[in-house]
Amino acid sequence: MQVLKYVGALSSCAVLAVFSFFLADSAAQTHQDKYTLKVPGGLAFSEFKGYESWQLISISHGGPVMAATVGNPAMIKAYIDGIPGNGKPFPDGAKMAKIHWNTKDLETFPGSTVPAIQQNVDFMVKDSKRFADSGGWGWAAFEYDAKSDTFTPATTAAKPPQGNDAKCGFACHTTVKNRDFVFTNYGHR
């Protein structure tokens, strides 16, 4: 009788262990590693690893969308040194990320607008050899799907439409060629 109880307990533990393994394996398979994504032309999400903790360059708010533009240390140093206002180009290795969110009213402070659901993230990297035919800059845009917590390279179906290669931002940024193709000013501190 005790052997049956022991076997029954072991069977229950085995079933629980197998179920837990499959549940954990299923969760691991559904979690996307965004750093494996790449746009045609070679610009990869992994080139911007750590952007989530880069220093703020500026914020913007237009219509139902707000954005924060952040830069890596090389980009921040270039801004502090006066680029692009001094007419010099940004150095190779300078990187920016612009994170867009839908907005919502802050419940705890009426009249304040704050980020809600993320829409996408755009990247720029200065590499004058790699992107010689696009002003020395490479671009990438990745759409975010909150339901699945995943990113995908932006396409011409995105809002705004994006070419989905490393030169997707070049046409738009030619209007600021005299600023080394960068729209964003460094916010005063």
Which shape, going by the Cα principal axes? globular
CATH topology name of the largest domain:
Chalcone isomerase
CATH architecture annotation of the largest domain: 3-Layer(bba) Sandwich
Overall pLDDT: 84
Share of helix, binned: 10-25%
Spatial ordering of strands, largest sheet: 1-2-3-4-5-6
From the N-terminal CA to the C-terminal CA, the straight-line distance is 77 Å
The number of domains is 2
Beta-strand percentage range: 25-35%
Radius of gyration: 23 Å
The number of helical runs is: 3
Verbal overview:
There is one protein chain. The chain is of the alpha+beta class. The chain has two domains: 1-31; 34-179, Chalcone isomerase (3-Layer(bba) Sandwich). It is 22% helix and 28% strand. The chain has three helices and six strands. The chain has helices spanning 2-30, 73-80, 170-173, and strands at residues 55-62, 65-71, 95-105, 113-126, 137-145, 150-153. The chain has a six-stranded antiparallel beta sheet with strand order 1-2-3-4-5-6. The model is unreliable at 3-28 (pLDDT under 50).
